[in-house]
């Protein structure tokens, strides 16, 4: 139960009662997804199970199984450690690059020695944030 498995895998735990189920959920380590197979009526009397599980997984699934992932704004494919090394990021969504980059700043750096992406003329014509505004224009045009 405490090892990450890639590929199709299910773990079925049969509990004698609600207390035992809560104990099992408390012991889970971080996971990418967690499925609760239930009806809405059943869940209305088991809200605490959702509270426990949502602290253990990155994506909660109601009466279903994890599907493939898609690069879109609503996709979450990360979770608490050890499912992810940093639970603030997801490996798949439009912002997933944030889990792979490390910001570096250049303080008091001579303009002529700055990387091309940071030079005022924007030779690479990339989208940058300048004074809080996203732009592709050259700073010479400002």
Short recap of the structure:
By secondary structure, the protein is of the alpha+beta class.
Report on this structure.
This protein is of the alpha+beta class. It folds into two domains: 18-99, no CATH class; 111-141, no CATH class. It is 16% helix and 13% strand. It has three helices and four strands. It has helices at 18-27, 40-44, 47-54, and strands at residues 31-36, 57-62, 128-130, 133-135. A two-stranded parallel ribbon has the order 1-2. Strand 3 (128-130) and strand 4 (133-135) form a beta hairpin. Helix 1 (18-27) runs parallel beside helix 3. The radius of gyration is 22 Å and the shape is elongated. The model has no long low-confidence stretch (mean pLDDT 82).
Could you tell me the radius of gyration in angstroms?
Answer: 22 Å
Low-confidence stretches: none
Q: Give me the count of strands.
A: 4
User: What oligomeric state do these chains adopt?
Assistant: single chain
Q: What is the tally of helical segments?
A: 3
Please trace the helix and strand order, writing H or E for each element.
HEHHEEE
Query: Helix content range of the residues, please?
Result: 10-25%
Write down the overall geometry: elongated
Topology, please?
Elements: H1 18-27, E1 31-36, H2 40-44, H3 47-54, E2 57-62, E3 128-130, E4 133-135
Parallel strand pairs: 1-2
Antiparallel strand pairs: 3-4
Helix pairs in contact: 1-3
Task: Please name the defining characteristics of this protein.
single chain; 142 residues; alpha+beta; two-stranded parallel sheet; two-stranded antiparallel ribbon; 3 helices; 4 strands; 13% strand
